[in-house]
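Hello Y.,

Per our agreement to keep a running log of every chain we model this quarter, I'm adding this entry. I've kept the format consistent with earlier entries: sequence first, then predicted structure.
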Amino acid sequence: DKLRQRHALARDAFLRYPELEGLRGADSELPLTVAIAQSEPSDEAITPSPGTELLLVLTPGAQINWLYDSQVYSAEAIQQLQAQFTNFLAGLHTADTARLADIQLLSAAELQQLLVDWNNNKKAVNRAATMHSLFMAQAARTPDATAIVFENQSMSYGELDRRTNQLAHELQRLGIGPEKPVGLFIERGLDMIVGLLGILKAGGAYLPLDPTYPSDRIAFMVEDAGVPVLLTLNHLVPQLPPHSAHVLRLDTDWAQIDRNSDRPVAQTSGPDNLSYLIYTSGSTGKPKGVMVQHRNVVNFLAGMDDHIPYEAGDSWLTVTSLSFDISVLEVFWSLSRGLKLVIYADKSREEADLLSSPMANKAVDFTLFYFSSDESEEGVPNKYHLLLEGAKYGDQNGFGAVWTPERHFHAFGGLYPNPAVTGAAIAAVTRNVQIRSGSCVLPLHSPIRVAEEWSVVDNMSNGRVGLSIAAGWQPNDFVLRPGAYADRKEIMFRDIEVVKELWRGGSVTMTNDLGKEVQVKTLPHPVQRELPIWITAAGNPETFREAGEKGYNLLTHLLGQSIEELADKIKIYREARVKAGHEGQGIVSLMLHTFISDDLDKVREIVRGPMKGYLSSAMNLVRQAAWHFPTFKEKAAATGKSPFEVFDEEELTPDDIDALLNFAFERYFETSGLFGTPQSTLGMVNKIKAIDVDDIACLIDFGIPSGIVLENLPYLNELRKLAL
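Predicted structure for the entry above:
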């Protein structure tokens, strides 16, 4: 019933979350159903038909009765709807010539609340403060408290204050002052924070320059901003593009910096001066610099005090690149409130750690996965343009396979009702790639028909097919085979054996329409002697175990499970396979949303909309992020409930949902997909290798326009080569 309140939940959530199956009403039509009926006073009471969530019964000249499903609507929600409906009727009566759009639904009290009361957010703010003066005041209050931590290093507020004073003196000696940008070309660590505060104390504005960015982009930003000084580390200097700025190294030049006084410098900047300069990705042209003043940030930090509870000694993990402005909250709010700032390591450090893993040199295959193409996309030659052109690119560039799914009765993925048919189309335009279903919902079909169809594709492709088989998850799909839904998992494993027997040339006993048992063999004979089979597993460890026991390969994903959780389930699969005595360790294929290009910021902008749309269609994925969302963690701690329970009980406004979707997007962008440049995503590939995955099935059609996907496939191919 809780699921019915999340109106955007997609039916395919049941593929990913088997524990959701059987929840009452989860397959109901969306959006909410409303019925209107007319009744005379003498009529018997009207009973809503099944599935009706709101029924308005009109008695002419008398009243309107509201009948509603209390598990969908609360009494308060109905009262609000009634009040707004009354306002609407009154508006019709008094303004019969007005446009419908101009008739007010809200009462005067509601308008006052929305427009005045909820916007009364004025609070006292120190209008003379700057970002660095807030830190300096905190350092004076708690000089011995730990300010920043990175791996096994730390620095107190007092020490950080003194070191940044010394750096500020050096920068002022180099001519830095108000409105002067200083480039910070540095990795994550203690020196990153020293650089930020030193620049601000000198009166300058910091310009973050991520060492992972393309050289030409760094060069453009340095030239466009007119940077006179670059702060960096000695080993990063060779990575700098040609420039005319003075280079100051925070490691090898520190002996020189250390000769400066550790007393505060003369303050030359104020609240109206520039504090930082961050460039956009340039996805619509050249990157553009966005300039932010101190007073903007000070006001923002003060506003966040009302939303983030904290106590002295609390820790805050900073994970965001300085090139994104959310890092301003992470760094400066924490350090101006006396928190301990824990700095998350660069991906490059994680990659170095992963190289020591026994799986670091493991070979991993790259394949192309199609799952969610929407047939409504305009401007493409035909609906299967991305499928066929992508398959041809993969075939010519060393990708191992192309997967197409089975989807029914929904526009999202509706291009793929039969993977055997799309597989035959792929066979006709390729010569090398394996052709796989991902997945064939076997309980919907006769195993005889499945064996016949895929044997045709095996012949057309000269022996290149493989089937990932699923039990099914959406009750509506089973109009294709009524009565099979309840026992679909048992039917799946039983019918796999039938398909395998027919594939090998054996016969099976079936009953014909006259009630007579007959022996059936299928034609044509396939090219491959054995049919490669995968089992599609969402997050249920039991499915992993069964796939291993029966000797099948495995197809899974990272939606709703972490890499660490998946690692444990892969171990279950491998151990079950060995224990059952099967040869080889099997193939584990991992489906990941994938988009690789030449610029991380551009990737983030291109992917954000489609991924938020995908997540909004499956709110249970967003529910998974509740464990990490500060609001839900805070309320969970206060009530003793889990963040999941808090999420389910929360009345989410559109703004709440958008904020949560943004949070979930950032989490999935960083942890559950291949998003970025070939270099920036190599660490994710190494993580995947380390948990013993054999094949990365790159889902490339999740809402990004086909032309953009195809244009950027060479970058995915570059990643494939780097991962060899």
